Amino acid sequence: MSSHKRLITGVLAIGLLASPAFAFDFGRPATPDEIKLWDIDVGPDGKGLPDGSGTVVQGKQVFSDYCSACHGENGQGGIKDRLAGGQGTLASNMPIKTVGSFWPYATTLFDYIHRAMPYPTPGSLSTDETYAVTAYILSLNGIIPADGRVDKDSLPKIRMPNRDGFVPEPEFDPARLFHKK
Fold this sequence. Notes:
Blueprint: H1 3-18, H2 32-38, E1 53-55, H3 56-66, H4 68-71, H5 106-116, H6 127-140, E2 149-151, H7 174-177
Antiparallel strand pairs: 1-2
Helix pairs in contact: 3-6, 5-6
């Protein structure tokens, strides 16, 4: 191939590779309804929790149908993370990190289940099923009673056993990390 043809081929290749970087009229802004579909995160204070509710009794069935294959019957003994028990072990030389021993907020349990569970079909549970499984797991850990019910009003009020167990390290203090000079 002559040097002239190589030069033209090179210029064309660079132009084709660079053209997407200059695409200013690409796509369209997302609509409010499209944004709402993805705006499903829930904060520790409960902001973002959807309407709905679930009971421990309902959650036991949903857990049996969708969760026990990985997490074991009653949230223990499965091939994946243990979800129940472990209270009082975090300071030991054999800590057991579960929802009841480690997690600081009940709202983040709902958030995680809603977005990431069940495997392999994350996000497939309805809002009420998610509330129900959350209630069941909290009940397994003795955090709510066996006849308990959770919803967007009650879930943020639940005080998890390890709520105060996360002590910020000074070197990770946001005021120090992100101060403006």
